[in-house]
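User: Here's a chain of 419 residues. Predict its fold as tokens.
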Amino acid sequence: MLNRQVAPDSYMLKDLSLTKPEVKELSNELSVHILQDDTNPVLKIDVLFATGKVNDEKPGQSLICAKVMVEGTKSYPGSELQELLDHYGAHLDVSVDYDYTTVTLLCLKEHINLLLPVLKSAITEPLFATEDFEKIKLQQLQKIRVNNQKNALIATKNLRKKLLNGTPYSQTLEEEYLNEISKEDIEHYFKQNFTLKPEIIIAGDFDKDIFEFFEEHFGMLEFTNLNSDYKSKLSPIIADDLIKREGSVQASIRMGAISIPRTHPDYHDLSITNEILGGYFGSRLMKNIREDKGYTYGIYSVLINYKHLDYHIIGADVKIDHIEDTVAEVYKEMEVLKTTLVPEEEIETIKNYMLGKIASSLDTVFHQSENYKVKLTEGTDYLDYFDAYVNSIRNITADRILEISKKYFSEKYCVIKVA
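Assistant: Prediction complete.
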């Protein structure tokens, strides 16, 4: 009989089973990156454009443009587009971050040739109907009004404005900015940025016939390689600000410092050290500030990476009378990591946790395609990156964690408190 009082044996993850991408070119030199997996007859196509919020001439242009693009096109206006997608059980979406915009089509393999014209139409001839523009703009305005009542989002916005000062990454979407955007503004944004040559990433049950479909629909499109140079200069403002809001029942804290890119030689080891600090439920910050002190239900520490800058952020929503106590305890835990070796038992725990986390983030071909897309934007080899990451996790030592902590947790952090 199974003894449920004895934990099962655990084993260190040996190797990741990753799909090796194949890269082909269409006749117009458009690159198609293929992660083939015939487990299910489904395809996910990402068309990745090197444009995003940093390219906004007016804050909110890229977001509104992306949302309106999939409301209707010249070939598939309004409800016709949505009815066609519903009929074939397909999904078309556009996501925007600071550096990139991704147009995604998810569909059954058998319908791909019927739906590729829809994807092509979305990226080449969006309708930008006035009623669609006004609807999306109103939705975003309402979302901003709701978010501006949340201490957590106010704290995050203000941290970005201070820490990322001097760069487009400090921009946050505000009601007054959105009110200034016209339909002509998003049409101009589209013409300026969606003529840039994208990358196409395909995951799923791909075959030779499907490549021919892509050649037919996308191989004759014309794109340009020109893009505006990034000229902003980062000038962080290291502040310690308290923003008072009447009626607050809890406080939100955000602490941030400039960090390093994923391509930096220290990045993997810093990522592991950050997990120990505040990256998972058993982290130092969770044990101290949640379990021991009871100041919060949760606290996190994350490394955020963009194309032109990177930063470290620590965040928590805490009891309103323990704001300064929480900040002091965060600094205390960083100091402990800088002065005291992490016990081997804790290192083994974090190794197993992180290897399991990586494995689960790569367990389907669609998850792998998302990770591949990130590596593609960074100019790093997808397979080499994860091999190096796994190797770093397996071989990290207490001495190395101490060294990394001294190197990267010694800066004075920008602190924003909203209460």
